[in-house]
Amino acid sequence: MALIDCKSLTLEELRFHLASMEVPAYRAAQIRSWLDRGVTNFDDMGNIPLKLRAELNKKFHISSVKIEKKLVSARDNTVKYLYALDDGENVESVLMEYHHGWSQCLSTQVGCKMGCSFCATGMDGYVRNLLASEMLAQIESAQSDHGVRVSSIVLMGMGEPLDNFDNVIRFLHLLGQPGGIQIGMRHVSLSTCGLVDKIYELMEYKLQLTLSVSLHAPNDNIRSQMMPINKRWPISELLKACSIYAKTTGRRISFEYAMVDGVNDSDECAMELAARLKGILCHVNLIPLNSVPKNKLRRSSDERLGSFKAILEKLGVNVTVRRTLGSDINASCGQLRRNKEKE
Ligand code: SAH
Ligand code: SF4
């Protein structure tokens, strides 16, 4: 029988499993407290009797991440981790310092099915979903290794969070549990390439997180070249979902737009984008493309970025150019893992 992933369980669920083993309910809180302190072995849980530890070892598994590589940027305080999971797979995570505190970018899958042309993660295909516990472990590991408290998180690392819907919802739930990491939903951003059916599903949870949508193009012609998912859900359907999402949750949508030289960065693109976003409660983040070895795409010039931004502003769109942190350590996700696979 497969072992149960202990750390992904809520306190109530853990109580339920323990009850079936005729273990009293207060043990669940004791175990959870060890898990929240980063303990990854039942044998290290001092207040749990030896006999019970042996039974727990037969029924549960505690997943963890190990730091396989750590890169610290010499330009800013950005830290990039390559983590090894229990099955030997690797994911990446980036820790960034902002004036309001430390923010961490987490991975939600090993690889990704979506195959976006500009993305290092997408190039290597999909391996598996991460468990909720493996998302929590990325935060715990970074906090204890780097000696900081993470105050906000973005689900913008490797993988498509809405393609791992149940585990991501479970992770978000566990994030706010008493005794746990305790990051409020207002300090969470979830980024998606636009799985429209899942956006509607997410809406039903009425979470106060920020939904980031990787738009990257103002029309289907360009977007379908960059992002295969656009053939399944074209821009009109995606923006309709975004508009309803913003109205239902009262939360502004954040549209990500990676500026790619000669692909999506013309003045016409800016005008078309502004027209399409009219009436949607939103903000646009322009991101100079991080170049990925093996594809020929290049970032737009600063001049192009400036002109694109000015047009959006003139047409009433809320827009910022995102700071590129950790540019000397390949801080955009997917690249470390690729390098490792090549070794
Ligand atoms: N799968 C989700 C979240 C992970 S990707 C999504 O696509 O939204 C996180 C963000 O990085 C997305 O906005 C994605 O489009 C962007 N991205 C991927 N590769 C990039 C690159 N080479 N340069 C700049 N942004 C990139
Ligand atoms: Fe997957 Fe996001 Fe990369 Fe696209 S950009 S391949 S959805 S991780």
Compact overview of the structure:
37% of the residues lie in helices and 21% in strands. It is of the alpha/beta class.
**How widely separated are the two ends?**
35 Å
Beta percentage is 15-25%
| Named CATH topology of the largest domain | TIM Barrel
What can be said about the biggest beta sheet?
10 strands, mixed
Describe the structure.
By secondary structure, the chain is α/β, with parallel strands linked by helices. The chain has two domains: 4-61, DNA polymerase, domain 1; 65-342, Aldolase class I (TIM Barrel, Alpha-Beta Barrel), CATH 3.20.20. Helix content is 37%, strand content 21%. The protein contains 13 helices and 14 strands. It has a ten-stranded mixed β-sheet, covered by helices on one side. Strand 5 (90-98) and strand 6 form a beta hairpin. Helix 11 runs parallel beside helix 12. The longest helix has 15 residues, at 132-146. The protein binds S-adenosyl-L-homocysteine and iron/sulfur cluster. Iron/sulfur cluster binds at residues 112, 114-116, 119, 121-122, 159-160, 193, 214.
